[in-house]
Amino acid sequence: MDFVSARIITSDITRLVAFYERATGASATWANEDFAELRTRSATLAIGSTRTVPLFAPGAARPADNHSVVLEFLVDDVDTAYENLSAFVDDFVNEPTTMPWGNRALLFRDPDGNLINFFTPVTPPAIEKFHGRLG
User: Fold this and answer.
1) Torsional sign, CA 17, 109, 41, 6
2) Does 79 fall in a domain?
């Protein structure tokens, strides 16, 4: 088994895809007007419009209603990312903070309120854990 993606359901797919393109620097690949993907080296963030929900089961997912999942992105320098994001992110949960497990982390919310963590490993064990995945 291989974990390949996470999907966000949104009522404004154009806005959310543009936000993630700007935040990550990745370009989205659109399958159609209701589904796009942003691919990184290790995973894919899929974004689907509410029009896709009935294909699974009516009411199976609700947009802008996430209270438990954090989307995490490994970045080269979280402090630089914070400076860049400050130009367009409206909701920072914290500023870059070094966590007890060795990552310097920045938490913020996307336009739908989903929680995002940009982080950079800064201690030797954290750096070793993500060896080869930065840069």
Assistant:
1) negative
2) yes
Return the exposure string of 72-82: e unless at least 16 CB atoms fall within 10 Å of the residue's CB, then b: bbbbeebeebb
Domain count, the chain: 2
Instruction: For residue 73, give both structure tokens.
Output: 């992105």
Q: Could you list the residue range(s) of the whole structural domain that residue 44 is in?
A: 1-55
* Placement of tokens 């920072």 in the chain: 92
pLDDT, tens only, 85-121: 999 999 999 999 999 999 999 999 999 999 999 999 9
Is a pLDDT exceeding 70 seen at residue 135?
Answer: no
> Do 73 and 133 reside in the same domain of the chain?
yes
Residue 58 DSSP one-character state: T
Q: Is residue 81 part of a domain?
A: yes
Burial code (b: 16+ CB inside 10 Å, e: under 16) for 6-30 equals eebbbeebeebbebbeebbebebee
Alpha helices, DSSP H, located in 4-132: 13-24, 53-56, 78-85, 124-129
Residue 62 lies in a domain: no
> Measured between alpha carbons, how far is 122 from 99 in angstroms, rounded to an integer?
9
